[in-house]
Specification:
Number of domains: 2
Largest sheet: 8 strands, antiparallel
Distance between the termini: 37 Å
Structural class: alpha+beta
Number of helices: 4
Strand order of the largest sheet: 1-4-7-10-9-8-2-3
Number of strands: 12
Order of helices and strands: EEEEEEEHHEEEEHHE
Shape: globular
Helix content: 10-25%
């Protein structure tokens, strides 16, 4: 289990986010449309990532020495992340209540998935700058919220949420079916100086991949890219140069 803690000179200036998507339709393992992006009030003080290898042991009672175990493949990753929410500087605000509710909804079936006759809660992608180990497509298995401060009307203005995420694996080209390796779509918020070409070079190492980004976001005019726009960046295996 790997743990990361922040503080001091090593404190990240990049804000962590949780992209919440509709589940895909059919057998796809690529997240569906973006429902919302959950912006953290504060970056996690710590998070944990775990992964297990699956080995098969075959009993052999007639043999004195135990047989060699057979490796069956890696298990999907699991991640625990703590989210601290605080609006105590605005005692009448209900932002903490709304944010906790949006996390709890990650364990509820979406209306679109019911309409598609494939009931499923949302799929999510946690992102924190260049921390690629923690970025993968997942489902939220549990949300535990602890409210620790309340406003004069009884509305919570401080809370700590514990999230458990479980990876949803997908196969890439040439990958063994038992492997859980994954390259996930992620969401990028446009900042000054960004262009589709620069994002394509940064993500895929080829500026020609800008067309894939444009298609994924239904962009007709690639020169019009307002700051703050949220772009879905396709997984590398989806991009054709």
């Amino acid at each position: 289990m790997a743990k990361s803690s922040g503080g001091g000179a090593g404190k990240s200036l990049v804000r962590a986010t949780l992209a919440i998507h509709e589940p895909p339709v059919g057998t796809s393992t690529t997240p569906g449309g973006l429902i919302r992006t959950f912006d953290f009030d504060f970056n996690p003080a710590q998070l944990s990532i775990g992964r297990r290898a699956h080995w098969k042991m075959t009993p052999a009672p007639a043999v004195r020495d135990s047989p060699i175990p057979e490796f069956m493949g890696p298990e999907p990753r699991e991640m625990g992340v703590e989210i601290f929410l605080d609006s105590s500087d605005r005692p009448s605000s209900n932002s903490v209540l709304r944010k906790v509710d949006s996390l709890l909804e990650c364990c509820q079936v979406t209306a679109k998935s019911i309409a598609a006759k494939q009931p499923s809660p949302p799929w999510v992608v946690f992102q924190w700058g260049s921390f690629s180990t923690a970025r993968f497509t997942a489902y939220v298995s549990s949300v535990d919220a602890t409210y620790s401060l309340f406003g004069t009307t009884g509305v919570p203005i401080r809370a700590t949420c514990q999230l458990k995420l479980h990876e949803i694996p997908s196969r890439t080209k040439g990958q063994n079916p038992t492997s859980g390796a994954l390259t996930a779509r992620r969401v990028h918020r446009v900042v000054a100086g960004d262009s589709l070409q620069s994002l394509a070079w940064r993500e895929y190492g080829d500026t020609a991949a800008w067309r894939a980004i444009a298609e994924a976001n239904a962009i007709d005019d690639p020169t019009a890219l307002p700051n703050g726009t949220q772009l879905v960046l396709p997984a590398a295996e989806e991009v054709r140069f």
